[in-house]
Amino acid sequence: MSQSYNRGLVEDFGRWREFSAGMWAWIFHKFTGWVLIGYLFTHIAVLSTALQGDAAYTNTIVALESLAVVRLLEVGLLAVAVFHILNGLRLLLVDLGVGLDSQDKSFYASLVLTGAIVVASVPTFISGVF
Amino acid sequence: MAERYSSFNPGGTLWLLQRITAAFLVVVLAFHFFLLHFVHHADEVTFGMSQARMSSIAYFSLMITFLVTATFHGSNGIYNALVNQGLSGTKKTVVKWTLVVASVVLVVNGVLTAIAWSDLINIGVQGIFG
């Protein structure tokens, strides 16, 4: 009665040419998740300079924020966070069974909205460093 | 069409917690970015400004909850991504406990940092580490 179907590991990235929109959404969500947890550890490590006192913390933040590369990385972080948030909302709706028929369109909408928010935010993020 | 593509066991506690923390993080992560990059700018951050925010019980408790939920969501996400990738046996156990220890270290470091800023709790953290 039952048929077995070996589709291998779900994350068989060698099949990337066959991936649908939903698969790309899943991969992007996973990639942005890895970046965000990596950043969380870095973020707390930088903030914990506050344990060394007022000056150590303020000097560390001022020094980092004066670097153009840090500002550009912050733009990248914004892109990663916004996509993870928007696609996360999409996933929550999918889990609730809402909008299943348009899950590919909501992925494209997440990408477009992420791009728009990031581009609009660039002036704020790089102000005063160049 | 009964195939499932989720990384999680259906109906599991970790699955539910991942969704609950996601719903919380969607809102708080967006708030965090908005407050610290658009209302205030990252290059204007000083110890005094962080201290003023962290001395509000509402902000302090929100940030501690943010730290704990983000750490859980990230570590649990990584664990499930690796299990989905085929992690099993002894390696799975090692990864699980490494993530548990790393998460505890991250949360403790973050809480100590928050306490160092805050006027709400004075346990002499700066005296210990400064």
UniProtKB/TrEMBL annotation, chain A:
Q: Which chain positions lie within coiled-coil regions? A: none
The listed locations are: Membrane
What keywords is this UniProt entry annotated with?
A: Heme, Iron, Membrane, Metal-binding, Transmembrane, Transmembrane helix
Q: Major location, coarse class?
A: membrane
Question: Could you list the residue ranges that cross the membrane?
Answer: 31-51, 63-86, 106-126
Return one GO MF term: metal ion binding
SUPFAM superfamilies named in the record: Fumarate reductase respiratory complex transmembrane subunits
Q: Which terms in the GO cellular component ontology are assigned? A: membrane
NCBIfam families, per database record? succ_dehyd_cytB (TIGR02970)
Q: What is this protein called?
A: Succinate dehydrogenase, cytochrome b556 subunit
UniProtKB/TrEMBL annotation, chain B:
List, alphabetically, the InterPro entries matched. SQR/QFR_C/D (IPR034804), SuccDH_FuR_B_TM-su (IPR000701)
Transmembrane segments annotated in the record for this chain: 16-36, 57-74, 94-117
Tree of life domain:
Archaea
Where is it chiefly localized? membrane
The molecular function GO annotations come to: metal ion binding
Give the record's keywords alphabetically. Answer: Heme, Iron, Membrane, Metal-binding, Transmembrane, Transmembrane helix
Pfam families to which the protein is assigned, alphabetical: Sdh_cyt
Could you give one GO CC term from the UniProt record?
membrane
Where located? Membrane
Q: What is this protein called?
A: Succinate dehydrogenase
Organism field: Halobium salinum
